[in-house]
Structure formats: C-alpha cells, structure tokens
Amino acid sequence: MTHTNEQQSSPFQDENSVGRIHHARSTEDDTRASPAVDHEHVSVPVLIIGAGAAGARTAIELAKHDVEPLVIGKRAHGDAHTTLAAGGINAALGNRDPEDDWQIHAADTLKEGHFINDPAGVETVTNAMPDRIRELEEWGMSFNRTEDGKIEQRYFGAQSFRRTCFVGDQTGKAILETLVSKAQELEIPYRENVMITKLLSDGERVYGAIGYDTDDGHFLRFEAHAVVLAAGGYSGIYNRHSSRIDENNGDGAALAYDAGARLMDIEFVQFHPTGMMGDRYGEDWDGRLVTEAVRGEGGRLFNARGERFMERYSPDQMELDARDVVARAIAQEIREGRGTENGGVYLDISHKDQEFLQERLPRMYERFAELGVDMAEESVEVAPTAHYSMGGVEVDFETGATAVENLYAVGETIAGIHGANRLGGNSLAETLVLGKVVGDHVADESYIGAPELPESQQRAADEHFRTLKALSGQGSEDPQAVLQALGDLLEETAGIIRTEESTNKGLKSLEALRDRADDLMVGERTGRSFEYAIDLEFSLTVAELLLKGARERTESRGAHFRSDYPEESEAWRKNLTYRETEEGMTFDTTTPRDPSEAVRKALDADYELDYHQLE
Asked: Which architecture does CATH list for 459-571?
C-alpha cells in the first residue's frame, strides 16, 4: 500500500505552485524500481538540506536564475538555528572607522584562524560582504543606525575596527526573517519537519537523499541533479553548548562523510567564553549564549574575588581578545579556585544605564530580567560553552563543490573559512556570501530533465529504509541517555584543554558507547527517541573524527589546546583531512595557500584593536 500524503504546503510559496515539483509514488508498477518498503518519491532539480541562512540564501540565488530548488527543514518553517546568532555580522563598511577595508577584515580573519584558513575563501567572503549587507538593506532589514543614518557598527573580539553590523542583539533572527521574506516573494518551495538520514551516493556522485517525515513517520526518497548541504555544525554534541536542543549534532558532516566527501579540521571546536552558568537560571538555560555584543558594548569580566582578571591575560585587548584566549583565561581562573561556587565568573555591564542596554542588547536584557536579574544593576554568571565548529566538509570556494560530484556544502557544515578559531561576526557573513556563490554555480550547471536514480541506488535506498524500519525495537538503552553520555565524554576528554592521554581515554570510552548504541530502546518514527537514535549515529561518527584529529594534531593552535604540546608549531600549519576508505578512517594533510598581496600588506601593517578606546 502506498502513501497518499501530499507534500506539505510550503511556507516559502503559495500552495498552488507546489505542483511544479514532480512527484511519483513507489508502486509495484514502477519501472525504475520495485522497492519492498513503501515510501514517497520526490524528484527536484536541486535539493537543499537545511533551512537556515545558508540554505535560504543559496535557494534565493538559484531562484533568481530561474532554477527551482526544494528546501528541506528539520523543524517548522522559520525555526532555524540562525536565529540564535545574536550579536552581529561583519562587513568593512567603514561607517564608524573609515580606515577599515575588506583586506583588513581578511587579515583579522586569517590571524584569528591562526593562518590555516583558506585565504581565497576568506578573501571571497570579506570582499563581498559590503554588497551582501547592502542587499539585506534593500530587502528590508532594519539595521541599527548611527546618528547620521548609516548602518551602525560595533566592536567584536579581535577585530581591528568596528565592523560588526547589528539589529540590537537579534541579528540572526532579523537576517533569517529577511531571507524568508525574499524566498516567499520568489515562491521557493519548502518542506518542513523532514529528517534526512542518508545521501544517495556511490562515493563518486550524489543522486539525492532519503529520510522520513517526523510528523507521520512515512519514508521519503528525494532524487536531485544536485544536493546542497546546509545542515549546520557539530558543537551540540557537547553537553554544555550554546546551540538549541537537538541541533548542531553533526548530521551535515556525517552525511557528507558517509557519501564519500572529505572532511577537514574537525578537531577545531570554538568554546565561546560566555555561556550562561548558575543555579538561579535553571538547567534549561545552562550553556546558552550570552552574546559577545555584551563585551563589545563594554561588558567586563570579574572572578569571584572581584578582580578584573583579563588584565593579567590580555592587558591591551582585555575582554575583546580572541574567543579562545578569553575562554582559556576563564577556564584557568575557575581551575585555580577563583571561580564562583557554580564554576563560573561574572560578566558585568552595570556601568551602562538601562536605556542603553534596552536599545543595544534588548534580548539579553529581557532574558535576564525574566530570570530575576537586572543587567543594569548586577552582573550575570557565565562560563565557556561549546559554540561553533570550525571544521566540516572540504569544499572548493569558487563553487562550493565537495569531492563528490553534484554534492555541494555551505554554512557551518563546511571547513576552511575560519581556520583554527572563528572571528566573531563572521559566521553569518559566510552564509550569505557562499550561499550566493553556490547558488550561482549550481544554476550555471544547466541541469536538464528529471534526475534518474541508478538501480544500485534504488537498492541502497530500499536497504536503508529496511534499516530504519527495523530501528524501532525494545533494547535496553535510552538513545537520549547515550547522547548525554557522549556529551560528558567529550567535555572531559576533548574540551577546552586536551592531552594525548585524554583523547585516548575518550576513544576507548567511545567504543563502549558504540556497544550501548547497538542496543537501543527506540519508539515509533514520530517520537523523539527515534530522532535521538538517528542523531546518535551522526554524533558518534563526528566524535570519533574529533577525538582522533585532536590526538593527531600535536600542537596548540587557536581553539585546539594541547597542554602536553602547549606551543603552536610551524610544522603543523596545515589542515588535517579525513576520509572513509576501504581501510577505514584515513588522515591526510594539506598546506594552506598564501593570501593575496593586498591582504599580505594588511597583515604586515599589523592592525589591532585597542580595547581602551571603549573607555
């Protein structure tokens, strides 16, 4: 018996235009395949997996070229992790500091990434960002403004000049709303509450993807000429993280790895210095981000003794030094007994008045007010939290292409732009610029006709559906509990500080978790336990890559700190790549290219933020 469920009505477009996407139901009369497992079949020119800023901007560019993509979202429409990117987006507009330019932005990005970024990718992003900001402005985004009406810009950590554009402290939300509005105008098809569990690939070429509808549990097979992964990162595999619950669990990287793509720099995870900490906030808020904008607007860090401790670690840049520097400083204060009873420090901006905070940091002020804390009167308790994954899928920055034909990736799913540590304000910038790059290229490929799925891939899809169908069962392990144990393992063995001993311990413990994962108690496909079981497989794959990469990289660089190898090594100024082969997980290294002469000049000029300009 075949499903008769029609495609979900699209929030991006009018319901009447859904019919432009070709659909076919698998039946015994289907001449291309005779699957034993019932599923819905959807055929589209381009499939975009991920509905945040990166996926939306890619879809917009395709639509502008008269190519109709289908955007797949794991959650409801507009409910993407982009909304948590609060503090701002970088562009060298020079509205506050006229001497700023894109070459200096590129230099700051390379320095923050400890020179293992891809210079061509960095220059593509920084050069294009002023145009992308003006584009958002044209599409109706309401940026904060200076007194003379220009887009306002503020300091973010490790930036030489004020170049972070913002909408209060809700910049990501404003960007996503602007992009969704543009997508609706272009009538871009969108499908929500769909979880992709596997890419259809023979290791050389991708043909589509398969998964299931989380609302009613029926299986889905998508065939496409091209697939774009825009599925986020993997910082959520740690228990204390700034991501939304059940997101950034590594599905994008794991899907690409399984399909035959190369991954890169998985060992680099950014720990944001200021995640919420303390009993008064409750477990639901533990690790949630206190935006860097608080420090960018003058917030100061104090230990439990009332000492402004960043004076010891970074007297010039203070609280606005690089995120890895500030996070390790906080960790050291806590380790040496100068932290709070809850294991944190204090972030204080009470020297600013309430009106200022409500204008510049409205969401932060409101959040803490609801929790009984007036930021204009008292400090908030914070500690480092896993925030962003610099590693991901290796791509060609001229096209967004991976090593697998017709498979592209964009956003936090990819590696290369941020190197060993991301410059605050650059994540949203990357999504917009590279979303346009990928959309331009895929549109130029001129895919014609309906995509065809080889019989081998039809069989692979059916085999995977059988595996998913058999997943529901009565084992003894709760998938959520195993995920929790994985998060604890990573916090202990591959957190802010790592050693060879800790990573070996982590890998040994990972084997035991895999044994537990083979005996899961999983409910129906419409339930959370089923989703957790899928997440667990993705997260275990990425955790193994992370631990092995952290053990392999015998130096300290950016967010990767090895206390047994505390110095940065010139011999390790290279990228570590990962690929699945017949021999299993294999490592290789590549050496980053040199930046352009213009960016080299900006690096030689050695621009640097002076924190005391804020005082």
From this structure: Up-down Bundle (1.20)
